[in-house]
Amino acid sequence: MKRKLNFYAGPSTLPVPVLEEIQREIVDYKGHGLSIIETSHRSKEYDAVHHEAIANIRELLEVPENYYILLLGGGASLQFGMLPLNLLHFAGEDACADYVVSGSWAKKAFGDAKKLGTANAVFDGKEQNYMTLPSASEIKPSPGSRYLHITSNETIGGLQFQDWPDTGEVPLVADMSSDIMSRGIPVDRFGVIYAGAQKNLGPAGVTVVIIRKDIAEAAPEHLPDYLSYRVHAEKDSLFNTPPVFSVYALNLVLRYLKQHGGVAPLEEAARQKADLLYQAIEESNGFYRCPVDEQYRSRMNVVFRIADESLEPVFLEEAAKHDMVGLKGHRSVGGLRASIYNAMPISGVEALATLMRSFASRRS
Ligand SMILES: *Cc1c(COP(=O)(O)O)cnc(C)c1O
Fold first, then answer.
1. Between vectors from CA 19 to CA 16 and to CA 21, what angle results, nearest 5°?
2. Which ligand 1 atom sits nearest the alpha carbon of residue 156?
3. What does the pLDDT read at residue 211?
């Protein structure tokens, strides 16, 4: 079997041992004579998987007891709407929410909030083409704010928060879809954290929501059940049929991470992998450039350009010949992007850095 080096931004690479375990178990789950995806979500087999996944997230991210961990459908995009529906829409005339508008994903979250209430941009990166972030100390909530939303890692722009704003009594909310479990996080400084699984945690289909209990319990009565954090919390995320395959695979990824020492080694590996690529860019004497403000460069999505942009498709072709896929920048911004999530081995990033160096020396 020849596996390619997968630099896709999402869905993205998964640990091979996890894929192999799925393959072994998919027809006959642990000798029960049926697949886990054919099993009732009320069965004791699925129940064990579901609760183990939640317990593993709690352990790996050191989530305090006063937070619920929910496993929901609808992708991170559903959270763009669910959040303002639960925290803002019914909160009264004077209520508002704050958004750090840092790039493509933040804009989508902000857009949904504006449809449901008053939402302010406490920072807007538009003038700087979304190539920089505010410093943590510059971010201040507005009077009457119900929450302040950040995108911890802008997957398309390649920007990542390096420290967290202090929002006082106003809950800090973060979309961590593309960097969850790549570093330790002080969960108690957040009101809500959410992340679609398909970047760092598993296949698409399940979204992890970590929400302070008092915030979930205060969800308005008027909401349709599925859209209420309180309903999901009361039912342990078994209100309706959960995405059973995605939760099962998520749990295998979490087990794998635990067996390999948890989040701390991933944080170190992310630093090493990102350094390799940013160094290759810096040392290329302007052949490559990274447009992102140096202090906020992402360790998950390394965005870069070739000074002579006509060489970008040539580079992609060469990469493909070396079995490297997914290096094309997002269609909205162009250029090149290497997504180097948890499951990308350092050897894969070394191979890419080597190709970048040899391409630059041949084409300069
Ligand atoms: C991928 C991504 C999303 C969208 O996730 P879906 O699960 O496709 O809805 C939202 N935010 C960020 C930061 C992402 O990287």
1. 110
2. 15
3. 99
Instruction: Look at residue 130 and give its three-state secondary structure.
Output: coil
Query: For residue 1, what pLDDT is reported?
Result: 77
Residue 223, class by beta-carbon neighbours within 10 Å (0-12 exposed, 13-18 middle, 19+ buried)? middle
| Pair of tokens at residue 162 | 């390096």
Residue ranges of the chain with per-residue pLDDT less than 50? none
Please calculate the CA angle 34-207-145 and round it to the nearest 5 degrees.
155
How crowded is residue 342: how many other Cβ atoms within 10 Å of its Cβ?
28
8 A C-beta contact, residue 347 and residue 16: no
CB of 242 within 8 A of CB of 71? yes
**In terms of C-beta density within 10 A (0-12 exposed, 13-18 middle, 19 or more buried), how is residue 181 classed?**
buried
Residues annotated catalytic, as ranges: 105, 175, 199
What residue ranges in 228-348 does DSSP mark as E strands?
A: 288-289, 301-306, 324-325, 336-339
The span from the CA of 31 to the CA of 26, in Å, is 11
**How many helices and strands, by DSSP H and E, does the chain display?**
10, 14
Radius of gyration of the chain (CA): 21
What are the distances in angstroms from CA 53 to CA 58, 73, 171, 258, 347? 9, 15, 25, 12, 29
Phi, then psi, of 210 in degrees rounded to 5: -110, 115
User: Which protein residue has the closest C-alpha to ligand 1 atom 13?
Assistant: 177
Pick from 297, 300, 314: which is nearest to 356 by CA? 314
Task: Give the residue whose CA is nearest to atom 14 of ligand 1.
Answer: 177
pLDDT of residue 364: 87
Residue 168, phi-psi category: left (phi > 0), alpha (psi -120 to 50), beta (remainder): left
